[in-house]
Design a protein that fits this description.
The complex is a heterodimer of chains A (246) and B (271). Chain A is an all-alpha fold. In chain A, 71% of the residues lie in helices and 0% in strands. Chain B has two domains: 2-51, no CATH class; 61-264, MetI-like (MetI-like fold). The chains are: A mainly alpha (246), B mainly alpha (271).
Chain lengths: 246, 271
Amino acid sequence: MANKAFIGLGNYIHMLTDDYFWNALKNTLYFTFVSLTAEFIIGLGIALLLNGITRGSLIFRTIMMFPLMISDIVAAIMWKMMLDPSSGVVNQFLMAIHLGAPNWLGNSHLVIPAISMVDIWWQTGNIVIILLAGLQSLPREPIEMAEVDGANKIQLFRFLLWPQLIPFVKTAIVFRLIDLMRVFALSWAITAGGPVRASEVSQLYIYTQGMGKYLNIGYSISLAITFAIIVFILVAIFNKLLPEEI
Amino acid sequence: MRKMRKLVIYPVLIFISILFVFPILWMAMTALKTPIQATNFLSLPTQPQWHNFADVWKTSGFGNAFLNTFEIGLGTVLISLLVGIPMAYSVVRYPVRVTNFAGNSMLFMRIIPETVFLLPLYVIFRKTGLFDTKIGMILAFQIITLPYTIWLLRSFIMGVPDEIENAARIDGCAEIEILWRITLPLILPGVLTSSIMAFISVWTSLLFPLTLAYSKAETVSVAISAFKGYGTFNWPVMAAAAVCITIPQILMFSLINKYLVAGYTMGAVKE
């Protein structure tokens, strides 16, 4: 804050050549892509399974929602312990069934998938409850009629359930996309961005530039604004790509 | 055929459930172990170490952070409701251009990453003396909770038929009284849901207290992350701290169980 000279677009020009910023953006997009894809596929699968049963449906649904009731920082701290290379429960289990013990958080290729795994555990329930609410709001009669006419499961899903489910799919994906792009706690508390910035996400980089370490407030604000614009554009694209109600 | 399907569905669901629940059980168990037992996941807490919980409260102002978070959370909810209820009402019932714009900008607010607000707020708070105060935190949290409250209440108010309000209007009821005596009682579930969701977002927020507070307005999220550097990485005490801050959250969620979907999607999806 000491240097208050007005530097015009200087911060934005500096940003273009700031490799760390682009690295953080790349990490954020990679994390978002892996998590969103997995969460959606698993979430849709679970929602369809839950929609197919009546007995115990409520219990299973409550269980799926359990991780949602934990805050991101607690999830991060928990999983940091669970992913510990030697004493963590994940690797102890993998060793017990002879699958080796990868260093989840120390290997720059594994660290983002590992953090995604935490998010998948933490937030898949979110997609389940939205899609399940959607599936249960659909009228029963057309489905029963199609079943009588001999439609198989895949046809039923493709031509009857999916088109009606689209608005819910859209809600689920857009909400998850927004929250995934803004990830901070998972990266900050599990790895602090390491190893060697391999898991540093945008909000973490912006935070470290502005508050955490350097106090480059002006520069970090221009990073934050650029990042916000990127998130806006992504959300807008998804909003356009996903069709409206049919 | 139907029977066969059930034979597949239930085992799959049970397997997934175990994966979902296991980390939570593991955390609860670790909280009762000794540090040595904690590194072996097969060990059972045969002699529950309840003192781990006592250690949490003795550590670096955790109890203080707990109280702080409650106070900040309640303050935040109160202001969000006081401002949010009339605003949501006018956005729904008087959709002129200004209110429409206000309504739509609410959704934008959710998309914007927190750092965009926090860095300028940090500078402002430093200058005005709001830095590291509870009042400052309560004001800052309105950035997330107020749009959320308005947006959620909006969808609940839209579910109230105007006929009821119009009937009161014809009988000469003042607008503020319509809101207070007729609409508000009908949207109480929405008020409860938005209050609890707002409280939880204060409870779980990390970036806000990390940026805008230091010690006097520290909240639980920051307090628990401070454990990271705590001595020799005492897992059981960390797990106990995690349990302590998760229990109030689960209790609050269970109060709004029925409206959780609406709460999560800001009213976009209602069951």
